Amino acid sequence: MALIGTVCGVIMLFGNIPTHYTLLPYLALFSSMVFLVSSVLIGNSSVSVSTVLIFGMTVMRYCLHPLIMVYGDYQTVLKYNISSNAQSGILLMMYECVAIYLAMVASIRKNRLADNNSSNIVVFKRIHTVVFLLFGYLALALAVRPDLSNLFMSIFQIDEVEFTQAGRIEGQQEGSFLRIISTLFSFVFLIVRIVFPVYILGLLIKKKKSNTVLISATLLFVFLQFLFITATFAESIIASLIIILAVGKSDKRLFAKMMKIAPLFVVGIIIAYFYIRHQVNAMAGTGGKYAGNNTLAELSSLINAYFTGVDNVAGTFNLRRDSRLEHFLASMQVTIPFNTTIFGRAGEILPTLFNFENHETGQIPSTIGNGYYYFGFLLAPIFSFSFSYLAVKFNAIALNTQSFWHYVTYMLVAVLFSLGLGMYNEVITIQYIFNWAIPMLLIANYLNRSVHNSR
């Protein structure tokens, strides 16, 4: 990782860099030093999913994307006041980098990883009941509200705004019966995304099906994730990763074979999405939201949007700061399930303000930028530090648990916190913890009691 950062930084030094981006090469060089020091401090600790995700997320944001920006004409959609704010955004990202890796090192030293012993997917009477009830509610909700089927979009239908931030709006009045049904439908479907594929794969493993059948079934469920997108695109990636990890928990040899195929399969789906959308735009003679004059320019714009790049962080400095408390309370309110029923409609949330002040739509403000807006420079990385620490902690808890369904749940939490450092921000991350991880934990507790009772 340190080598990648160093190479990116050196290559950027030979590029044509405007005055307001002069610190861009040093972001990569600085992060490479942080990577190196962190690696030394971590020592021979086992590699985990969360550390891989954190390294990957930060290398993309601090090294690869700045390099693509330099040779991609600095193309992004967030350019309002960029000449005034870019340097501040880069310095804030340097500070974030230190906080993320300080938290990761501290968490690794505090939370030791156990050996990831194989544990068969548990299939027994209670899981049959859980799956039946989950699908029963989905069917009932669709019967009462057939329009809920409109929530589903495939990767080939979703537009560029919804690719990062859900664009479909709930039309029912807050607190209404139909609104509650809709909210519960979203929660239940999130759970079904993981529980049902793992349940079916568990049945196949129990029947001792061949590895070819299991790998094929796993890839089928991964593909289906991208045909039923109800919120952000990354939701499908998260579910796919958890399914793969769940199968891998049951059989290390099967997991090793799958890891040679599954990542390429997922990447292939994503590449297919962008290729098809590019071709459709080209045939229609229209440029997409993130279109550029060349491939690197388009990548520069896309990555800045999907991985909260430099221009995204810089956009935070355009926000007026006279209503920080109100925006913080409103943003935290929307993370709570049934918040409109309990508290009434929330005020203006920070993502809304961010898009308005930057004259854009559909952009997710960064975790570090939001921290700066709420708490000032010194405490700006509070979310980033917390998410990095918790991602490693829950990864360790997952590997140390003897309960299969708790392993699945804790790995989900670890992945959510890891992605909260770049693909998501604190609002979306906390929403998913409440709406996805906690319901999964309740189901895991229920199923775990069944295991103990059967002994």
Outline:
The chain has 455 residues and is mostly helical. The protein contains 19 helices and no strands.
Characteristics:
455 residues; 67% helix; globular
Structure description:
The structure is a single chain. This protein is an all-alpha fold and about 450 residues long. It contains 19 helices and no strands. Helix 1 (about 1-15) packs antiparallel against helix 2, helix 6 (about 175-205) packs antiparallel against helix 7 (about 210-225) and helix 8 packs antiparallel against helix 9 (about 250-260). The chain is globular. It starts with a helix and ends with a helix.
Secondary-structure class: mainly alpha
Number of strands: 0
- Percentage of residues in strands: under 5%
Reading the helices and strands in chain order gives HHHHHHHHHHHHHHHHHHH
Radius of gyration: 22 Å
Number of helices: 19
Shape: globular
The helix content is: 55-70%
Sheet with the most strands, sense and barrel status: none
The end-to-end distance, rounded to whole angstroms, is 47 Å
Mean pLDDT: 84
**Which residues sit in consecutive blocks of at least 5 with pLDDT less than 50?**
161-172
